[in-house]
Amino acid sequence: MKQNLLEFDAPALAAWLAAQGEKPFRAKQLLRWLHQFGQDDFAGMSDISRDLRQRLDELAEVRLPPVLRDDAAADGTRKWLLDVGNGNAVECVFIPEENRGTLCVSSQAGCALECAFCSTGRQGFSRNLTAGEIVGQLWQAKQALGDFRGHAAAEAPARERVISNVVLMGMGEPLANFEQVVTALRLMLDDNAHGLSRRRVTVSTAGIVPAIDRLRDACPVALAVSLHAPDDALRDRLVPINRKYPLAELMAACRRYLEKSPRDFITFEYVMLDGVNDSDAHAHALVRLVAGLPCKFNLIPFNAFPNSGFRRSPAPRLRRFAEILMQAHLVTTTRKTRGDDIDAACGQLAGRVLDRTRRREKRSILTAETAS
Ligand code: SAH
């Protein structure tokens, strides 16, 4: 099979070219063609010698995950369903806002973490995405949104980007797919590739503690942590990875991360579940939990999906909860529900996953047992 060049970050591309007897500086040229100008045809790479173009044609290719569906929501949100082979498909969402455009990218086909309130978790897990499939989502979105730079305009003053921010908040747990995610992050940040600001690329994790430390050392970007509960007993139920990495360890990892983070705070995501984690007492316990840790809270109104077993907290409850955090001087925002008419909101990304871990099957057996 031909080598997919989208799998390579700059050093890996230089090494591959060197192995073909090419000069490593070609890597810079190639990266720019691929990731800045969106050129997927070697024939169109005009400043590369015909000789090399021909060799690239023989040995390599630019393989993108094909777009199976393209949905637009009433509020301007776009969602793409991308084919990653063998019956699996992942979703990627673009969220336009007044002063930025955010692309939400998937890192796995499915997810193995089984957070109680997440529909991706219900789908089971198939496999990790490759770096090329992760960065391929950004590629496809840029293509669809006309966000690639024209080659002729390369030296002209950069126009405003359509996609200014990337968040790894789609399907999957990014830190459970560490190597591929870091390669993709490097391509997003590299000035010869997508050239995004380190502060505008966010990894969101359910809290895989050792991988938080590794990310800090390998490629620090903005960090969001899915907290969802202020104490271990409740978090064990909602975010089962907590049984392995309990809150005290998670909070310590957040502190360590801040030593190298491009942002001087951690974002805590907190899904508001009616009658489960949304009382005044929960809010006060959260304040105590994060005391002394520079952080911001992002409250997410729960997005329903069939048979979720949860309800969204009523708006006045959410407001009261936010008030308690703000009275304790914690910056608190509430995530606007975007694109829910096309099932593009948080926790609604389901894609299509062939569940190789047979999680779904096991769960339905469990449910049948408890029901009888
Ligand atoms: N695995 C990563 C990325 C997940 S998606 C993580 O856990 O952080 C991004 C956010 O959406 C997470 O905070 C996740 O917990 C939240 N989420 C999942 N299902 C949701 C739902 N049904 N409604 C609202 N938010 C949800």
How would you characterize this protein structure?
- The protein is 34% helix and 19% strand.
- It has helices at residues 10-19, 26-36, 50-59, 119-123, 131-145, 178-189, 209-218, 232-238, 247-258, 280-289, 315-327, 359-371, and strands spanning 3-4, 60-61, 67-72, 78-85, 88-96, 101-104, 108-110, 125-128, 165-168, 201-205, 222-226, 266-272, 295-301, 331-334.
- The termini are far apart.
- Strand 9 (165-168), helix 6 (178-189) and strand 10 (201-205) form a beta-alpha-beta unit.
- 44% of the residues are buried.
- The strands form three sheets. It has a ten-stranded mixed sheet.
- S-adenosyl-L-homocysteine is lined by residues 115, 117-118, 169, 173, 204-206, 226, 269, 271, 300, 302-303, 346-347.
